[in-house]
Every structure is written in structure tokens, then in C-alpha cells.
Amino acid sequence: MRKQLLTTTAVLLLAFTGSAFADMDAAKKFLDSEIGDLSSLSRADQEKEMQWFVDAAKPFAGMDIKVVSETLTTHEYESKVLAPAFTAITGIKITHDLIGEGDVIEKLQTQMQSGENIYDAYVNDSDLIGTHWRYKQARALTDFMANEGKDVTNPGLDVDDFIGKSFTTAPDGKLYQLPDQQFANLYWFRYDWFNDEKNKADFKAKYGYDLGVPVNWSAYEDIAEFFTGREIDGKKVFGHMDYGKKDPSLGWRFTDAWLSMAGNGDKGIPNGLPVDEWGIKVDENSRPVGSCVARGGDTNGPASVYAIQKYLDWIKAYAPPSAGGMNFSESGPVPSQGEVAQQMFTYTAFTADFVKEGLPVVNADGTPKWRFAPSPHGVYWKDGMKLGYQDAGSWTLMKSTPDDRAKAAWLYAQFVTSKTVDVKKSHVGLTFIRQSTLDHQSFTERAPKLGGLVEFYRSPARLQWSPTGTNIPDYPKLAQLWWQAIGDAASGAKTAQEAMDSLCAEQEKVLGRLERAGVQGDMGPKLAEEHDLEYWNKDAVAKGNLAPQLKIENEKEQPQTVNYDELVKSWQK
Questions:
Q1: CA distances from 528 to 49, 283, 498, 512 (A)
Q2: Cis peptide before 270 (omega within 30 of 0)
Q3: What is the domain partition of the chain in residue ranges?
Q4: What is the assigned CATH class of domain 2-183+390-464?
Q5: pLDDT tens-place string over residues 426-444
Q6: Under DSSP, is residue 549 helix (H, G, I), strand (E, B) or coil?
Q7: What is the β-pairing status of strands 288-290 and 390-396?
Q8: pTM for this one?
Q9: Distance between CA atoms of residues 524 and 147, nearest Å
């Protein structure tokens, strides 16, 4: 009866209030059909948040807004489900384009160079934070939210709830981007094979220590050797997986913190200072001063060369023969086919590919035969360094976008990251951005089927995984140099040392051009004088820093492993 009465009342109200109520009607339908209990907000608070969007959007109703992001499951959900819902609720027509990551960067570059408003908002990696901060072509969201965008900033946005806030904050303390999705690169392994009694006994007999999650690269290498060629379930398996095709995605494989995992750069969370994981050094004013060891950088230092050499050795010795000809997207799902024992560098964006019913790596009850764990570190790594990479695709508003269009786009950006929708969106894409979502009971219930992903994100270990930081003054220009240099090493055209020598020299050419052009003002590069490795190492040590480190003669350190179940328990203390 009460429900009937409410319905009757709604019809009467609609007759008197017109379209505004129709918008809330659309919001309620969306909450009923799409969100349900999958929200960190109560139903009353969901409706309150939706009412705010309805009211804030009124001045922009009827506008056609274009936004763009790379093609990921999370963004597909936004484009196909959330964008139409937002349009129905607010009257702002959203076209959410999905294109390749490289194409997103290209469009952004074109807008920066031409001033033409190609898109009203971009989801681009927080790796561009140094670029946005220095070029001053992206709106500082801190200023925007306090001033011209105040009337379109959701009072329930809760910026402090975003776990990647530090990634999108520049040295000036201002937020330049709003995280939309995040995923990490973690260690992946066959939990069932590691717990098999014969595998455990054979490994202990051969190596003298327990088979478990490798803490360092020495242990990873032993495990890779142990499993490669071993027969399990009637087929020969491999101890490692990676990719080596010379294309742009090969660059991500290394700029995404591979060098820091080896021990390149300095201590510092989220990024090493003064030398970061790219090997680029900045001065006390955050101005890049060099990339090569000769200027105090570390791109071609012993830790970096060690990192590249291990990559080359392992893909050749322990990975499937096809790995060398694969790119990022081709290699990602390979471990799910059931012939790989472990992978040090697995992007959690592929989690959905690892949990599908019927896969060789999934049990009949839907639980995985595999687990995620923290990545092992190389011999040059020291406690206090970052230990891996986290991709943080983030909303960015350009100054070249007219104010009214930027405001309308900002409303959409807040809608798809709102507390109302984020839990549901995270269940679809598994790319967590909010602490309130991570704490939601539904993820406690789902955790056993996600192989440690939830446990990792709830753990203190998460803090050691971070994107590229602010030392990088022009991400689009510098990032494209990596895949070409590494590709030369992967093909055998250059040694690891030659490839990194070439890479740091090319990076310094870009830094030098930016310095001469003066386009980044007093935040732009200022190249240092050249000296040898010993000079800069001594200088670093005197200042309490590390990079560039001297070569360690014996790079095969004592191997160390930990029991996975004990590791997870330690996170929960």
C-alpha cells in the first residue's frame, strides 16, 4: 500500500514539476537497475548525490560533450553504461570515445600544441603529472574546484578517499588530475604448483631452501629455472613469461618501474628523489638536471643495466619461445592458459582474463589456482624504494577547453568516480580508486575469487607501487624513446649497456631542447656538468642519497622466499 501511495504521489509531483523530476526519476531507475546494494552510500545518500548532479547540471542541459580514454574494461563500462545514464539524469549528452593509449596521448599533444579543443576532458595516465605541472596547459583542479568550478564540484567528492591522490599532486601541492582507474603490476604465480608436495620436495633438494613467493630476483631466477621444462599435468611448462616485440608497448614494460624494481634511482615514495625510477635526476627546485650517469642520473648506471640484462636473460631462457614476438596485449592473458609457473610483471588489469570459468587456472568452484603477491626486488634495491608500478588513468581538464564545456565534462568525471557508482564500477573493471570501495563488504565476499588482489590493495604493501612521477618534464616525448632503445637490446643489435647509454643520451637531447626553448620557465630542465660515476656516487652518498650506485660485483645475492599464506596474514596484523 505504501509503495502504491508513493507511486501515486510521484505521478502527481511529476505533473507539477516537469523535467527536473523526470531527471530524478531516471536517476532512481539507474540506481534500481544498475547499482542496487553495490555502493558505499546508503540508498538515501545515493539519491541525495544524484539530486546534486541533477541540480548542478541544469545550466548545461542539452550540451554535447566529448571525452576520451584508452580501451579498458573499466572505460568500456563508463562509455556503454554510465555515459547514457548520466545523459538521462542530467540532460548533458556525453560521447565517451575509446581509443588506444598512444592515441589518447597523441590527441592530448595536438590539443596542447594547437590550442584546439579536441576533447572536453581526457582520461590520461597520471604519468603525465610532470608534463601537466610544467607546461601549465592543464587546469590545476585544486584551483578549479575552489573558484570557477566551485558550483559544479560535488560536496561529496571526498578527494581524500582516492588512494591515488599523491600520484596526481604536483610539487606545488595542487591536484592536477582526478584518478578514474588504477591497476598495478604484481608477481603472479601458480599457488597450486607451489604447494604441490613433490614440487616442494624437489625444489628444496635442488636449491636448499623452500619453494615460495620470491623476495628477490635471485630466488625468482631459481624458480624460473626449476619449472622450465618440468612436466606438470602431462605437459612441459615454463618458469617465466614476458614480451619482447619492438613496438610502443615495449616501452611501458620498462618505464612502468622495472628499473626501480632492480634498484635503480633513489629512495622515496611515491617516487625516488632526487633520482627517480627512469634514472632522471632533479635539483632542489624539481628541475631535471640529467639522465646519464655523467650528469648524476642513473638511466645507464649499473642498476639499470642489470635490470635490462635480467630481462633479456630470462625471456630467452625461461619464457615460451613465442614471448619475444609478443606485445603487451598479446602476452597479458598467456599465463591463464596454464603453462606458466610465475610471472614477475603481471598487470592486474588482466585479472578478469584470469578468473573466467573453465580456464585451466580456475578451479571448478570458481576460485583461482593462482595468486598475486608483491614483486621481488633486484640486488641494487634498498628498503624505502618503490617496488613496482601502478597505472592511474586520471581525468584531466585542459585550459584550452571553454569554461562551460570544462564544467559539464567535470560533472561527468565526478559522476563516474562518485561514491554512488564506484563500488559497482570496480566490480566490473577491478581497477580500484577509492578506499571506501576497497572497504566494502562485497569485496570481502568476492576476495577469495580474485587471487589476492583485494588483500594486496587493502595492505600497507600497496604504498610501494606508484606511477611515473614529476621528474619527467615531457612524458610523451621521453616515453617514446624507451621502446626503441630496449628494442635494440631485445633484438641483439645492442648490449644492455649500449642500449641504456643510447637511451640516456637521447633523453638528455630532449631535456636540452626544453632548456634552450625555455617553454617550462623556471621549472624546466637545467643540465648539470659532466663527471664520472665515482664522482656522482660520492656526491650522492655525501648527501644521504644512493644513485647512481656503483656496480656490485656479485649480482647473484642469497635467494630468499616467503610463504604466501604467512605473507597475507602479516598484512592483516
A1: 52, 9, 22, 10
A2: yes
A3: 2-183+390-464, 212-385+474-573
A4: alpha beta
A5: 999 999 999 999 999 999 9
A6: coil
A7: unpaired
A8: 0.91
A9: 27
